[in-house]
Every structure is written in C-alpha cells, then in structure tokens.
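Trying the structure run again after the queue cleared.
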Amino acid sequence: MRIRLRIVLLVIVVVIAGLYATGWYALHNPDRYLANITAYLQQKTGLRIEIRHIEVNLLPLSVRVYGLEVKNPKPFPAGDFLKVPELYASVALAPLLDEKVSIRSLVLDQPVMDFISDPDGLWNFQNPATPKEQPTRLSLDVISNVQIKDGVLLGSNLIDPSDAPGPIILDVRNFSAQLNQINLRKIHHPGTFTAIQGNIDASNAGFGAIHTTDLRSQLRIAPKRFTFKSFQAKTYRGHASGDFSFNFGGKNTTFDSVVNVNGIGVPYLLAEFQTAPTKGPAKLTGMMQANLKLGGTIEHTANPLADIHGTGTITIRKGELPDLNRNKEMIQMKRLRDPGTGALPVSAFSTFAGDVDLHNRRVYSKQVDLDFYGIDVRGTGSTSVMGSGAMKYRGVVTVLTKQGFFTNAFARLFKGAKEKNGRLKFPIRITGTLANPQCSVAD
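Done. Tokens:
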C-alpha cells in the first residue's frame, strides 16, 4: 500500500510539474499578451477596452485582472461605462477539454458601472456598429456565480438635441450583489434567454430626488427589463417596500413601480424637491403612509422624470400646514374645534387623507378629507407638482362639535353657513400655492 501510494503521489507531482512546465511561458508574464487580448476584445465588442495587469494561476485555474476599463463610445462623453479595479475569475478545467470556458465564480471588487442613454436610444455599453465575429476554438459557456463587492451603479440620459450630459437618475452606492447561473451562450438570443436572478444590498440608493438607505432587494435581469423585486428600504425616517422595474425595449426607457411607504417624515421628503430659492421652513408636517402605483417615460431633457404618472392613496397623521396660522378664516374657525385643543396651532390637523391621480404634472384628488381636530374639511381639487405648486380646491367644512347657544352667532361669521342639529356646515375654497396657501369661505 505504501509503495502504491508513493507511486500515485509521484504521478500527481509529475503531472502538475508538466502542466506548469508547458504553461510556464504564458503564466510567468501574461502581461506580454495584453495588447493581443485587448485587441481581440475590442474587435469582438466594438468598445475600447484597457487592462493594466493580469495574473494567471494554473491550479486551481484562475485569472486576476487589475485596472479593467471599458470606455464610452461616441457620441457619449469621455469616460468609462465600466471600471473595475480588480476582477477575479475561477475557471473550471474539465469543460476546457470540450473547448468551453465555464467560470465557477466571477468576483468584481469596487466596480463603477455608469449607464448612459442617448436620444436615439443607444446605450454606452452597446457597440454602435455590428461586432465582428472573430474565429476562436473556445466558446463561452456559463458563469455559475457572480459577486459584486462595494460597487457603484449610475444611470443617466443625454439631453436632446445637444447630447449634453443630463442629471443622474439612478444612483446606487456601496452595493453588494450576487447573480446566479448566467448562461453566456443564450445572452445574445432573446428567444432562448433565461432571466438572470440574484439579490442586492446597498447602503444608499436613489431614483431622481428620492433617496433611500439600507436597500435590500431581489434582482431579475431580462433582455430588456431590469427589476428590483420585493425591495425593502429605509427612507425619510420611515420604511418603503415594493417592486421597481426599468424597461429598455423602446427608444426611451420607461419605468413602473408599486410602492408602499409607512412612517415617512413629510418635511424630510418635501425638502428633496425644494430648490435654493424656495428652501425654508416646512410647508407641511406629519407622518405619512401611502400605497402608490407610479410609472412614466424617462425623457432626454433636463427634467427627465417630468412625465411621471400614477394613482394611489395617501394618509398624513398629526401634522400642520404652518402657513395657515396667519389666515383670518382659520383663526376664526379655531374657536369651533374640539375642547382641549386650544394649545394646538391653528394649522394643526389630526388626519389628512385622500386619493391621488398624478398626470399632466398635477395631482388630482376626487376626495380629500382634512380633520382640524373637530373641524372636518372634505373637498376635491388639484395641485401642480411643478413650479410654485399652484392649488385649486373646493370643499365643505363640517363642525363636528355641537355649538349650542352660540351656533347662530358663529353661523353669521361664515357666508353660506347652515346649521343642522347644532352642527355648522359651510363651503370653503383653498387657492394660492404650497408656499403661500389661501383659505377662504366660498361664496
């Protein structure tokens, strides 16, 4: 047994030594082949690719690439679509006998991926011309596992017609991801392509003006669709969850989402939409919960998300509309509120709830219910989501607390007021802007 074991070990050593001996020339200094490697990759993809350094190990067979950069083609601005400081690939030996490259694992350390779309619908990771097919004995097979560590993912459009860089729309920072079983043979054949599944964790993620932290989500990558499935995230001192998808099938990218939020601090959310001239104290406070379905086309303009549309419901609890504290009608109505609420500001409310229908850059509501602690306002109207936020609402105020002996006296204060069973009702109108709302009793 000892003799047989020695023979077996000797054979293994000889085989390993032979493999290293036959491959020593290439393994000792693979950088001498960098020019040939990058030239082949550029001919295959049509994109300019640079690599700073390569290391190859035979057993186990692996490749380590340093300083990988994939440059933006014209008409995109100078820069990189992909920059990877360090990439590691573990390659299976057995499939090489059938001239197939099967990668056990692929690890990208601190990659930066910057997706840019131009007005013609071309992306910076696409070859402007048809790639030239290069004859090769080896064919790509599968990647069993892809890991991304501490990455950055950016998305933006070029502005039509100047092709100037537009604002960043998608911004995912410090993310880690894992993708499973990528079949490289089917990626270029949509009819047979199987969606790539995986998951992602990110410390920071933003879409437009909305920012989140501690994002966790499943990923689904199809030929023309990228989906954050069942995501969970913290945002504006609250929590958000749902599904979010990008569709790259047309000239312009579209998106759709189903989002549920809870415990959102309204002042922190609204501050994201304030520009320098309009920054100031919060115009609306409270904690918000909402169920929304949103979508739209990402335009090649300086305001790419102006086409957002959607529907849903919103409820804000225990908040204020501070600019109403100076309103004469609101000051008069304060004396009609529930007993024991005198210490609260005129603008304080217990519940602000309603339906929303967002289209044509305005938010329309068929019914808004605003409870100023015993003074219930029900109305309908709309608010502009662009510029100053012009408002147009009409409704009816109902005083829920019976006023007793003083009912008639209060009724004379308001035009069109009616009394029934000791309760007052009168029409109201809200106009002005979010920055300067005007509340008045309607004629």
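The helical segments are 2-28, 34-45, 266-271, 328-333, 407-411. Worth checking whether this holds up in the mutant runs.
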